[in-house]
């Protein structure tokens, strides 16, 4: 078992760190103020070849590994910014379209998700359901060479951004089918973005589909297998989300150490006090455990293993663990950590999202528990 | 226009030890990074290639782990990479380093310009590039903040202590660049993969260079460190001067004179 990162991986980490410091950190105050990402950031990610990293070169990607994607995302995540989340989203949506798409779909829709000309979108959630496929109300009705989509999608990241997205709807057989749709189609409108606790600029909107025509050849994967595609996407998305948690957890520790070494009490830095040392030690141990498990599941993905249950178990562990790391970071900072002048305040808010989005932590218990109950091993 | 860029892997701050016997840095095992100022030289070379075409070769001397610095140069877009790596090079001072590098440059043959960072963050001597110029009998243009090419003439804007001057020379020439000359590019992910998967770092030893073996490494280095020590920092007494600004200034001058500092 080799735990050494390759030279290539280490160089990617370094490049991602340099990119984050040069291109993301300076624009965070503006993103926080305007609750929107600057228009050019997607192109900058594309130029850095961070989009569609696992996609083969002939479809616009670079043919890298899940582990390298994770490592890059971990570094970008240290900014605690939605700008970094955009990279994960572009990667995971491009992978889904590539994995399930016909050759025609791959050629038309994957390159734009890699070259920065398309914002991604993955639209399943509706006002009446988050994860329950039986509660989907959006319909797809066949009409000659098209399907006509009607319904409302909720909390769709970058649903208002130009380009393409994957939309899930009940087809004429009552089963869920996935469609790749152009977000500039007639009848496609969006709400203004929801104002979120954290992740400024995430662009979470409601999407209203009113007689939106989607060509039949835009069906992604097999007709009626949309929910299966969604589950596969979420499994990969979970690992990327956990890489974000690891990165943000590490930054919580970095910020806490920096603060604690400078914070003087009775003439000594607080790092000299056992209580603070214990908190720092627990944070460090927690992050290391989360990091290596995340790398392990990403490696399993590279090996072609089914990661549905592994990624659910990973999320089940990482989310509360890193949220506890963030809580300790706040304690170490004291009242300063509750001020917006300190990075920890934003990291704390951003870290709060992970137990809710891309399926809740509770749902992971069901996935892992039911898998254990089904297993033949005793 | 073909360019050779000399680069060096330097230790990351606070991770380096000294060999008490030789007085040299113990580089093996220490975390290494590509010298920041050398990245400016690489970026300058890449920009010149974008304008004028040609081939860029990165050249470094160091232990096997210096391969990482050359891979970084390749990932930035450099065409070829050569590492001078041989136990006989160990312990080289600037003169011995410049000697080996100049032999390698002669072996490369195809070059119009040799670009170097002004100095490295470990040694901070700024001597190697001028010494290469002397070994190769080439004009040296140091401290460039701008570089312009006109036919076979290179013109730089040279930073001086109190201003700038324009210096020019015909090809081939050696140029050292300042940190402020540019902002080095961050290598894109696909380029990093190519640097590790598709490109080669050639390794040359003393046998490949020929030359006088007595001039390599510690044996060929006239610089001998007699003693290495860490500077002791003693806590000083702080005196806060109070009063009107004129009065404070007069008292400050008086105090400095008393301590023979003025």
Write the layout of secondary structure elements.
The complex is a heterodimer of chains A (378) and B (262).
Chain A: H1 7-24, H2 28-34, H3 41-47, H4 66-77, H5 82-100, H6 103-114, E1 122-123, E2 139-143, E3 146-157, E4 164-170, E5 176-182, E6 188-190, E7 204-215, E8 219-220, H7 226-262, E9 264-265, E10 268-269, H8 274-302, H9 308-333, H10 343-351, H11 361-374
Parallel strand pairs in A: 1-4
Antiparallel strand pairs in A: 2-3, 3-7, 4-5, 5-8, 6-7, 9-10
Helix pairs in contact in A: 1-4, 4-5, 4-7, 4-8, 5-6, 5-7, 7-8, 7-9, 7-10, 8-9, 9-10, 9-11
Chain B: E1 3-7, E2 9-11, E3 17-18, E4 25-26, E5 32-34, H1 36-52, E6 56-61, H2 67-76, E7 80-84, H3 94-108, E8 113-117, H4 128-136, E9 140-150, E10 153-160, E11 163-170, E12 173-177, H5 189-197, E13 201-204, H6 206-209, H7 245-258
Parallel strand pairs in B: 1-6, 1-8, 6-7, 7-13, 8-12, 9-12
Antiparallel strand pairs in B: 2-5, 3-4, 9-10, 10-11
Helix pairs in contact in B: 2-5, 3-4
Low-confidence stretches of chain A: none
Mean pLDDT of chain B: 92
Name the overall outline of chain B.
globular
Described by strand count, sense and barrel closure, the largest sheet of chain B is:
9 strands, mixed
Number of domains of chain A: 3
Q: Give me the Rg of chain B, rounded.
A: 22 Å
Shape-level CATH architecture of chain B: 3-Layer(aba) Sandwich
Strand order of the largest sheet of chain A: 1-4-5-8
Based on the structure, what is the oligomeric state of the protein chains? heterodimer
The chain pair with the largest interface is:
A-B, 20 and 16 residues
Q: Work out the helix count of chain B.
A: 7
Question: What does this entry show, briefly?
Answer:
Chain A has 378 residues and is of the alpha+beta class. Chain A contains eleven helices and ten strands.
Written account of the structure:
The complex is a heterodimer of chains A (378) and B (262). Chain A is α+β, with helices and mostly antiparallel strands. Chain A has 3 domains: 7-114, Butyryl-Coa Dehydrogenase, subunit A, domain 1, CATH 1.10.540.10; 122-224, Butyryl-CoA Dehydrogenase, subunit A, domain 2; 227-374, Butyryl-CoA Dehydrogenase, subunit A, domain 3 (Up-down Bundle), CATH 1.20.140.10. Chain A contains 11 helices and 10 strands. Chain A has helices at 7-24, 28-34, 41-47, 66-77, 82-100, 103-114, 226-262, 274-302, 308-333, 343-351, 361-374, and strands at residues 122-123, 139-143, 146-157, 164-170, 176-182, 188-190, 204-215, 219-220, 264-265, 268-269. Chain A is globular, with a radius of gyration of 21 Å. With 262 residues, chain B is an alpha/beta fold. Chain B has a single domain (3-220), classed as HUPs (Rossmann fold), CATH 3.40.50. Chain B contains 7 helices and 13 strands. Chain B has a 9-stranded mixed β-sheet with strand order 11-10-9-12-8-1-6-7-13, with helices on both faces. A two-stranded antiparallel sheet of chain B has the order 2-5. In chain B, helix 2 (67-76) packs across helix 5 and helix 3 packs across helix 4 (128-136). The model of chain B has no long low-confidence stretch (mean pLDDT 92). The interface between A and B is medium-sized, with 20 and 16 residues.
């Amino acid at each position: 078992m080799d735990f050494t990162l390759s030279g290539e991986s280490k160089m990617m980490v370094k490049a991602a760190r340099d990119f984050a410091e040069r291109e993301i950190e300076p624009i965070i105050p503006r993103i926080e103020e305007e609750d929107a990402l600057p228009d050019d950031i997607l192109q900058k990610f594309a130029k850095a070849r961070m989009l569609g990293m696992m996609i083969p070169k002939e479809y616009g990607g670079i043919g890298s590994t899940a582990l390298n994607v994770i490592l890059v995302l971990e570094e970008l995540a240290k900014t605690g910014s939605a700008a970094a989340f955009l990279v994960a989203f572009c990667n995971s949506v491009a992978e889904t379209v590539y994995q399930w798409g016909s050759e025609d779909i791959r050629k038309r829709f994957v390159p734009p998700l890699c070259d920065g000309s398309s914002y991604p979108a993955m639209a399943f959630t509706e006002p009446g359901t988050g994860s329950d496929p039986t509660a989907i109300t959006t319909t797809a009705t066949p009409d000659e060479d098209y399907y006509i989509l009607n319904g409302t999608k909720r909390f769709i990241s970058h649903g208002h951004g130009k380009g393409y997205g994957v939309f899930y709807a009940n087809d004429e057989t009552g089963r869920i089918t996935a469609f790749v749709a152009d977000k500039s189609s007639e009848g496609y409108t969006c709400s203004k973005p929801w104002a979120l606790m954290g992740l400024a600029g995430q662009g979470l909107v409601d999407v209203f589909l009113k007689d939106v025509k989607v060509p039949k050849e835009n069906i992604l994967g097999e007709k009626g297998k949309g929910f299966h595609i969604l589950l596969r996407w979420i499994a990969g998305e979970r690992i990327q989300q956990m890489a974000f948690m690891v990165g943000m957890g590490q930054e919580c520790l970095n910020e806490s150490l920096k603060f604690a070494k400078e914070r003087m009490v009775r003439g000594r830095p607080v790092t000299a006090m056992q209580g603070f040392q214990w908190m720092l030690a627990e944070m460090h141990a927690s992050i290391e455990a989360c990091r290596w498990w995340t790398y392990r599941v990403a490696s399993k993905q590279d090996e072609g293993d089914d990661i549905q249950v592994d990624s659910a178990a990973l999320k089940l562990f990482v989310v509360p663990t890193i949220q506890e790391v963030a809580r300790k970071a706040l304690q170490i900072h004291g009242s300063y950590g509750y001020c917006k002048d300190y990075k920890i305040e934003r990291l704390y808010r951003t870290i709060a999202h992970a137990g809710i989005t891309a399926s809740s932590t509770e749902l992971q218990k069901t996935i892992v528990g039911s898998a254990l109950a089904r297993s033949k091993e005793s | 226009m073909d360019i050779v860029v000399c680069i060096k892997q330097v230790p990351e701050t606070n991770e380096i030890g000294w060999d008490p016997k030789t007085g040299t840095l113990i580089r093996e095992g220490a975390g290494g990074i590509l010298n920041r100022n050398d990245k400016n030289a690489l970026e300058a070379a890449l920009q010149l290639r974008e304008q004028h075409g040609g081939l860029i070769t990165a050249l470094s001397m160091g232990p096997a782990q210096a391969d990482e610095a050359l891979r970084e140069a390749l990932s930035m877009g450099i065409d070829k990479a050569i590492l001078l790596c041989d136990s006989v090079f160990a312990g080289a001072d600037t003169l011995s380093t410049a000697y080996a590098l100049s032999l390698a440059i002669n072996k490369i043959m195809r070059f119009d310009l040799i670009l170097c960072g002004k100095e490295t963050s470990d040694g901070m001597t700024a001597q190697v590039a001028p010494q290469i110029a002397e070994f190769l009998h080439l004009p040296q243009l140091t401290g460039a903040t701008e570089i312009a090419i006109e036919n076979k003439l290179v013109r730089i804007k040279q930073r001086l202590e109190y201003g700038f001057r324009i210096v020019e020379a015909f090809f081939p020439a050696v140029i050292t660049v300042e940190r402020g000359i540019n902002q080095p590019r961050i290598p894109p992910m696909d380029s990093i993969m190519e640097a590790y998967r598709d490109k080669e770092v050639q390794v040359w030893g003393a046998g490949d260079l020929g030359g006088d073996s007595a001039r390599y490494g510690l044996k060929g280095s006239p610089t001998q460190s007699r003693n290495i020590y860490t500077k002791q920092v003693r806590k000083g007494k702080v005196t806060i001067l109070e009063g009107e600004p004129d009065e404070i200034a007069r008292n400050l001058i008086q105090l400095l004179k008393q301590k023979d500092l003025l």
